[in-house]
Amino acid sequence: MLKILKYSFFDLSRSLWSYVYFLFYLLLGIILLFLNNDLSNAVITLMNVIIILVPLIGTIFGVMYYYDSREFTELLLAQPIKRRTIFIGQYLGVAISLALSLILGLGIPFVAYGLFESAAIWNFFSLLVSGVFLTFIFTALAFNIALSHENKIKGFGLAILLWLFLAVVYDGIFLLILVYFQDYPLDKFALIASVLNPIDLSRILVLLKLDISALLGYTGAVFKLFFGTSQGVIISFGVLALWVVLPVYRIIRVSAKKDF
Amino acid sequence: MVSIKNLHKKFGALVVLNGLDLEINQKGIIAILGPNGSGKTTLIKSLLGMVVPAKGDIEIAGEKVKDHWNYRKDIDYLPQIAHFPGNLKVNELIRMIKDLRGKDARDKELIEFFKLEPFLDKKLNNLSGGSKQKVNLVLCFMFDSPLIILDEPTSGLDPVSLLRLRDLIQQEKAKGKTILITSHIMSFVEEVADRIVFLLEGKIYFNGTVSELKTSTGQPDFEHAIANILTENNA
Ligand SMILES: Nc1ncnc2c1ncn2[C@@H]1O[C@H](COP(=O)(O)OP(=O)(O)OP(=O)(O)O)[C@@H](O)[C@H]1O
Ligand SMILES: [Mg+2]
């Protein structure tokens, strides 16, 4: 497994895009800190970017890496290596290197700005944790789609559609339902619908940490009640973890039956 | 060495292997022949666990293939179409496979044998088809395993390299290895093969020596004997 990881890293370290991604976060962090001149505000702006962008990048890198390394995969399959090791190794290679870009790219400017002396450190930390979860989730989803579709264009298109659905369309439908059924008590529905979508869930976890739940409107109180309890937090992280574990499990299942 | 029982494989509606049985216990060179699309590559990939059969059992050196992987450390495999990571250099690729295999390798000797030194620092994308095939051959032969599986080793090679390959295969045979080989070059097959296994309609249609094939088809010439099987079966 470590060897596969090593070669995935090696492979990605030769790709220009890994550096672009890292530099993007580095610049974003620096610019936001200069513009806002305040750690807490920068964290809020960052959240809005990260919650949408991290899933998109995870999706694109996941699909691209899977298709680009098909030759390497075929070579590995004839070697005395477990299939599971090959695919999980590649998945972890992509996900870990993306997560590192995120952590280092944002971490460096924030630490340089004096994050460790600031009260915003936990907000920033929760933002990074959400970002890392989203990276692992969407890379795994992308691998799933690519594994099931030989056709690159189709796989790519479907992966982008999935991202679009979870990042944009889901919220749209959610809002429509809230507006349409506003005469009914929808607190429970709103809560469940947000917990099920990893992007919404991450957003709420960060927002609540920032203590601006009032922004969430009338459902805010319910959310605060739920997420404020340790049970709510455990459930939330459990759901995020499930969003990683289930797709990874499917990677193992599908790759075991696939012909190369 | 290799034992295949009742092997079935379909791709969608296309039945490729249909209850194939094959036992290979001898050392030496066994040629797997058959028309294009008869399932030779599919059979070979099933041995390596790259293709997952629908039904049937395969054992190699007493170990079941299904869901296992360690048996592959004793197999050298040459794929029919070499898919290489294109942005790697030749020597990087060789080093990587050696590292993954964690076994002694005689890559230097083989690089010299196939005259690949000038290409070591080139990217695989920029190699000619024949040079790629030579890299493919180096990767395959460098580990000295008791079972060698060659899927169209001759493809793309010039006559000089072809002679070198033939010598190399004979050397390996002399070491007492079992070598499975597919090829469409009948003169090559006739020259090296100790046994012919002919695949047709998902089963073994013929299994014997070259001279047995000639007698059973009544054709004195090997190429005609093969053609005879094909025309008789409208393949
Ligand atoms: N992954 C796959 N998906 C769908 N069909 C496949 C796949 N692999 C092989 N086939 C089909 O199975 C059949 C047998 O293919 P195979 O490559 O085993 O033939 P072959 O005997 O090696 O032919 P050749 O002499 O041309 O190398 C072909 O019709 C091929 O199109
Ligand atoms: Mg073939």
From TrEMBL, chain A:
Pfam families: ABC2_membrane_5. The keyword Nucleotide-binding does not apply. The chain crosses the membrane at residues 16-36, 42-67, 88-115, 121-143, 155-181, 201-226, 233-252. InterPro entries: ABC2_memb-like (IPR025699). The keyword Disulfide bond does not apply. Keywords: Membrane, Transmembrane, Transmembrane helix. This is Nitrous-oxide metabolic protein NosY. The lineage of its organism: Bacteria, Pseudomonadati, Bacteroidota, Flavobacteriia, Flavobacteriales.
UniProtKB/TrEMBL annotation, chain B:
It comes from the Bacteria. PROSITE patterns: ABC_TRANSPORTER_2. GO terms for molecular function: ATP binding; ATP hydrolysis activity. SUPFAM superfamilies: P-loop containing nucleoside triphosphate hydrolases (SSF52540). Keywords: ATP-binding, Nucleotide-binding, Transport. CDD domains: ABC_DR_subfamily_A (cd03230). Gene3D superfamilies: P-loop containing nucleotide triphosphate hydrolases. InterPro entries: AAA+_ATPase (IPR003593), ABC_transporter-like_ATP-bd (IPR003439), ABC_Transporter_VariousFunc (IPR051782), P-loop_NTPase (IPR027417). Signal peptide: none annotated. The keyword Cell division does not apply. Residues 2-226 form the ABC transporter domain. This is ABC transporter related protein. It comes from Gillisia limnaea (strain DSM 15749 / LMG 21470 / R-8282). The lineage of its organism: Bacteria, Pseudomonadati, Bacteroidota, Flavobacteriia, Flavobacteriales.
